[in-house]
Amino acid sequence: MRPELTRLQLIEQHLLGPATPADASAWQLQTLLDPDLAADAAAQQQLYAGLQLAGRQQLRQELQLIHRQLYGPGSAGWLRGAAAGLRSLFKRRFRR
């Protein structure tokens, strides 16, 4: 495996996986010996946070669209139409 991929895999294991105390201490030692590793891990963590935020925004937009489709101005049209039909029916019925 290419060294860049091995490094990324190491960072992802640290950020995403549950760390044992031995793994945590090994990670601390590696970041002390390689400051670029700590910077790369911080950048990867910011990337994950940005992706999570973008996913939340997309989900919120999709939910708002569903809400507008279900409860928006056009959704009550059938109710208004039914009420108008009933009103006209009652008017005709009670005029006689």
- What percent of residues are in strands? under 5%
For the report, how would you describe the main beta sheet? none
> What Rg do the Cα atoms give?
30 Å
Helix content: over 70%
Low-confidence stretches: none
Overall tally of structural domains: 1
Instruction: Assign the structural class, choosing from mainly alpha, mainly beta, alpha/beta, alpha+beta, or little secondary structure.
Output: mainly alpha
- Helical stretch count? 4
Q: Ends: how far apart?
A: 90 Å
Shape call: rod-shaped
Count of DSSP strands: 0
N-to-C series of helices and strands: HHHH
Q: What number is the mean pLDDT?
A: 88
General description of the model:
The termini are far apart. With 96 residues, the chain is an all-alpha fold. It has one domain (3-11, 24-95). The protein contains four helices and no strands. Helix 1 (3-16) crosses helix 3 (35-71) and helix 2 (21-33) crosses helix 3.
Write the layout of secondary structure elements.
Blueprint: H1 3-16, H2 21-33, H3 35-71, H4 77-95
Helix pairs in contact: 1-3, 2-3
Compact summary:
The chain has helices at 3-16, 21-33, 35-71, 77-95. The protein has 96 residues and is mainly alpha-helical.
Question: What are its keywords?
Answer:
4 helices; 86% helix; mainly alpha; 0% strand; 96 residues
